[in-house]
């Protein structure tokens, strides 16, 4: 069975149908970083779990839902470019 995609259709392969692979890899890297950070700081297992969930869950929600239907990585690229070039203004006549 062959499917024909229109030329203007933007096809992006996604993990489980709702999260892009690059965003999922970034989420895993952030989760590992938060996990090691929480393990260094806290000793009680219940506090570790609560802090890990409270730090990682908002990041996961933003990456799944997206910001204005943009991917998580592209939003960070836009923010980084803006912070790097704050003095560039859009001039229109």
Compile the SSE list and pairings:
Layout: E1 14-15, E2 19-20, H1 21-41, H2 45-65, H3 72-84
Antiparallel strand pairs: 1-2
Helix pairs in contact: 1-2
Summary keywords:
mainly alpha
Describe this structure in words.
This protein is flat. The mean pLDDT is 80. It has a two-stranded antiparallel ribbon. The longest helix is centred in the middle third of the chain and has 21 residues, at 21-41. It is mostly helical. 59% of the residues lie in helices and 4% in strands. The protein contains 3 helices and 2 strands.
Could you give a short description of this structure?
The protein has 93 residues and is mostly helical.
Secondary-structure class:
mainly alpha
Rg, Å, rounded: 19 Å
Q: What gross morphology would you assign? A: flat
Mean pLDDT: 80
Number of DSSP strand runs: 2
Strand order of the largest sheet: 1-2
């Amino acid at each position: 069975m062959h499917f024909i995609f229109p030329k203007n259709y933007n096809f992006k392969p996604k993990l489980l149908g709702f999260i892009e692979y690059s965003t999922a890899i970034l989420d895993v890297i952030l989760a590992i970083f938060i996990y090691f950070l929480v393990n260094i700081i806290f000793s009680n297992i219940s506090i570790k779990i609560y802090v890990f969930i409270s730090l990682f869950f908002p990041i996961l929600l933003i990456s799944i839902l997206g910001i204005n239907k943009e991917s998580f990585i592209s939003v960070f690229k836009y923010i980084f470019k803006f912070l790097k070039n704050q003095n560039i203004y859009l001039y229109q006549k």
